[in-house]
């Protein structure tokens, strides 16, 4: 979204084993915070039998830019993308990071990255006109190929997603009153604009937020969701045919201002999803900052106890039907009941979060911050 501004900076206080054990109903750990390997909470489980996290562990990246783009491949491998055209990659759990930024990209704002493994990834730069671009690598970032440069000055691309290693979509803010969808069938090597006959009319002022790479997400081979803000009401649009036709549904996350709306969504299957957002301006109230759906987004229910402040990123804990994390510049919240209620468990600043099936949960944000959740 045009005009996506800065957010408040905070200092991480850590997510202690004692705090999360208390949240999950387990006995508290000792007062002194132990290492994740020694934490009593690390051996406890959620009611579903999933091992509980013992805390975020910051990984030194050596960077100072803001990483709003994040692609977790597994516990060892992750990619982050951010301002000043920066892309980093780790293959050893964050102990070492390799700067694999595309050459001559220092003026670009990377806001989303999708990785298929440790060698193949597609990164999206945002902005008006030719500032919106995609790059693709097949060799771990040693070389990049620019595969799309937006020729339309009215378009502004915000997010991208992939259904598999070949088929993916990218979305732009409305052009001629409708969100524009870009499609690839060859892993991001080439792109084409989809026809907009199946796209509903956008609300006045409605757009996507390029805040976490989660304004466009997919689950399964055909389902995709698009989160919006800036209009009179926050909405989530759903397509069951890879972006050819869409249905829009109002969400309880408030809109009514260019800085308010739904910033990110996450689906653990094609029916159960969570939406997060609010007002990204520091110090502004963000009531009803989360919502949930159990019918694929045809209807949304407000969280009875939402996060107290704006949240931009959300991810389901692996192998769980009820536990999810939401992150923002003022902290991390956890839900144990699929989004009905939330409780803050950390005050560190993160913009986005991503989890993999081997419990590789990563978060990234301002000042080069990247962390992995320890279990």
Note down, in words, how this protein is organized:
The chain is mainly beta and 375 residues long. It has 1 helix and 28 strands. The protein is globular and about 45 Å long. The two termini are 35 Å apart. Mean pLDDT is 89; it is low at 5-44.
List its salient traits.
1 helix, 8-stranded antiparallel sheet, globular, mainly beta, 28 strands, 375 residues
The sequence of SSEs as H and E is HEEEEEEEEEEEEEEEEEEEEEEEEEEEE
Give the count of helical stretches: 1
Would you count the extended β strands for me? 28
* Biggest beta sheet attributes: 8 strands, antiparallel
Shape, please? Answer: globular
Kindly state the mean pLDDT as a whole number?
89
- Radius of gyration (Å): 19 Å
The share of residues in extended strands comes to: 35-45%
SS-derived structural category: mainly beta
Low-confidence stretches: 5-44
Helix content: under 10%
Distance between the termini: 35 Å
Short description:
The protein is 2% helix and 38% strand. By secondary structure, it is mainly beta. The longest helix has 7 residues.
Describe the secondary structure blueprint for this structure.
Blueprint lengths: L16 H7 L31 E4 L10 E4 L5 E5 L3 E5 L7 E2 L9 E7 L5 E8 L4 E5 L7 E5 L6 E7 L5 E8 L2 E7 L7 E2 L22 E4 L3 E6 L4 E7 L7 E8 L5 E8 L5 E7 L10 E4 L7 E2 L10 E4 L7 E5 L2 E5 L7 E4 L5 E3 L7 E3 L5 E5 L1
Antiparallel strand pairs: 1-28, 2-3, 3-4, 4-5, 6-7, 7-8, 7-10, 8-9, 10-11, 11-12, 12-13, 14-15, 15-16, 16-17, 18-19, 19-20, 20-21, 22-23, 23-24, 24-25, 26-27, 27-28
């Amino acid at each position: 979204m045009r005009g996506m501004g800065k957010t408040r900076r905070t200092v991480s206080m850590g997510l202690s084993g004692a705090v999360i054990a208390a949240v999950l109903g387990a006995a508290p750990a000792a007062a002194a915070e132990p290492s994740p390997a020694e934490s009593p909470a690390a051996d406890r489980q959620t009611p579903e039998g999933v091992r509980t996290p013992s805390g975020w562990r910051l990984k030194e990246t050596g960077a100072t830019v803001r990483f709003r783009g994040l692609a977790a491949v597994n516990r060892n491998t992750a990619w982050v993308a951010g301002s000043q055209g920066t892309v980093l990659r780790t293959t050893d759990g964050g102990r070492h990071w390799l700067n694999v930024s595309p050459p001559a990209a220092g003026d670009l704002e990377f806001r989303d990255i999708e990785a298929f493994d440790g060698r193949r990834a597609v990164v999206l730069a945002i902005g008006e006109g030719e500032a919106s671009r995609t790059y693709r690598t097949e060799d771990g970032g040693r070389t990049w190929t620019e595969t799309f440069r937006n020729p339309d000055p009215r378009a502004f691309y915000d997010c991208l997603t992939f259904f598999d290693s070949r088929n993916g979509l990218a979305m732009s803010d409305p052009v001629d009153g409708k969100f524009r969808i870009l499609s690839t069938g060859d892993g991001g090597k080439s792109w084409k604009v989809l026809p907009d006959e199946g796209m509903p009319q956008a609300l006045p002022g409605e757009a996507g937020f390029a805040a976490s790479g989660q304004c466009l997400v997919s689950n399964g081979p055909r389902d995709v969701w698009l989160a919006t803000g800036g209009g009179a009401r926050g909405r989530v649009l759903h397509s069951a045919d890879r972006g050819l036709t869409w249905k829009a549904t109002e969400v309880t996350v408030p809109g009514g201002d260019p800085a308010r709306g739904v910033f990110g969504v996450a689906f653990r299957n094609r029916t159960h999803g969570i939406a997060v957002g609010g007002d990204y301006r520091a110090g502004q109230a963000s009531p009803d900052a989360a919502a949930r759906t159990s019918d694929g987004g045809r209807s949304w229910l407000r969280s009875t106890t939402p996060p107290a402040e704006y949240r931009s990123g959300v991810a389901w804990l692996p192998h769980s039907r009820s536990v999810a994390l939401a992150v923002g510049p003022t902290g991390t919240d956890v839900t144990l009941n699929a989004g009905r209620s939330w409780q803050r468990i950390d005050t560190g600043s993160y913009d986005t979060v991503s989890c993999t099936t081997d419990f590789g949960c990563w978060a990234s944000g301002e000042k080069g911050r990247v962390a992995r959740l320890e279990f």
